[in-house]
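lol so apparently i was supposed to do this last week
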Amino acid sequence: MSNADVLNFIDGAFTEGTTGKTFENRNPINNAVVSRVHEAGQAEVDAAVRAARKAMDGPWGSMSPQDRADLLYKVADGINARFDEFLKAEIADTGKPVSLASHIDIPRGAANFKIFADVIRSHGSEFFETVTPAGEEAINYAVRAPKGTIAVICPWNLPLLLMTWKVGPALACGNTVIVKPSEETPTTATLLGEVMNDAGVPPGVYNVVHGFGPGSAGEFLTQHPGVDAITFTGETTTGEAIMKNAAVGIRDVSFELGGKNPGLVFADCDFDATVDGMSRAVFANCGQVCLNTERVYVERPIFDRFVEALKAKAEGLKRGDPFDKATSQGPLISQEHRDKVLGYYKRAAADGARVVTGGGIPSLGGDYGEGSWIEPTIWTGLDEDHPNIREEIFGPCCHIRPFDTDQEAIALANDSRYGLATSIWSQDITRANRAARKIEVGITWVNCWFLRDLRTAFGGAKQSGIGREGGVHSLEFYTEMRNVCVKL
Ligand code: NAD
Ligand code: 6OD
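anyway here it is w/ 6OD bound
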């Protein structure tokens, strides 16, 4: 695949499609055009849905779970064999540092196929022996059938990781998929088409259509009656729009949405480890992980010391060449997103926040001046009802506020329409666990952040999502349970 032209992948073949429309894919480190992407229209989405449905009637539909698992291992091996190509493509699309992409994005792209291959290999049926009060006897067994054709709508922040996190379980369970990658990061999903073909995945099982949301491939796909279920990762407001489309035909949804994640730092924490961990939680991926912490609450006795220590971490981040292993902060995804984040920076300053560090655009030499770089930023002193505390910013920034009691910290953490993730930092494990059980989120980390075991349930509470995925939990969404009752 040439990096200059990104094509749709339908029924096992790459195609420009019929719209004649292309859009530019830019590298946010310098805003240079890296490729032209061929936009799919209604005809391409129709063709992808047709191919995906037809593939269910072919060898894929009758393949045993063991054989599917073997195939998914080949896909994972195919990603690993072309690791550097995936790495370069992901970095060109996102500008993220190689230190991050080579440790998280690409390895997880492969691991997401192996974990769900293992799950499907080892998963059995449910079985019950039944005796009714009237003395009738029966056996009940339940089998899991694929749901059918699944639309996978993806964001730009961890493109390969989040896409394969859905495609892995969908295929393991015997479904077919149509992926709509983010318009900002179209490349690795397309490259995966080559890996699928090389691995021997039948045509039509994995399809990719490119474009935007409203009036484009995203909307055409989620409105399509031939799609049986929709799995989506992205903003909460986009989730609302997709849910309306899913309502027509009563299609199931699995949503991983936005967050405004709190982090709780207790005075009895291991201070240095906490500052390290919180620095990652706030600034990793330039603050563009749904799990990043944007609200930090620190117990008063260590508040000033913590603020100074996190400031030092922010000021120690190194921006620049993403392929330099020492680079620790990339740019934001686009100029448009930077304008949004800068709006929050300006508002905090105008509303009287203490800007502990950052607040603007760094001066970087050469063509990096055209990129969407931004300073990591810390505020204190804002009221809890300020937009910077209520709304997801999705940038390398946080507000830090002191607290006096555990009860107050938990109430502050819970005062949000979001409920995705939190991290709690304390050496008193009983205290940390008491807090963990009261915080209204799907994922709590104690003395760590974004430490993942792919068998665990992942997802958000409140407006941060619907459903849980991970390990066997993914089977709930990607399969239909069919119960058979046999009278003896
Ligand atoms: P987004 O919602 O703007 O876009 C996500 C995808 O949806 C893109 O592919 C886009 O083209 C498509 N889309 C947009 N409007 C659509 C519509 N009306 N119909 C169908 N498709 C449509 O999100 P983003 O800016 O790409 O990603 C950032 C957001 O994603 C943040 O809010 C972040 O918190 C969230 N996110 C959540 C998780 C999680 O696990 N909870 C993970 C990653 C990102
Ligand atoms: O680790 C995962 O499985 C996952 N879904 C991470 C989400 C990160 C959000 O940006």
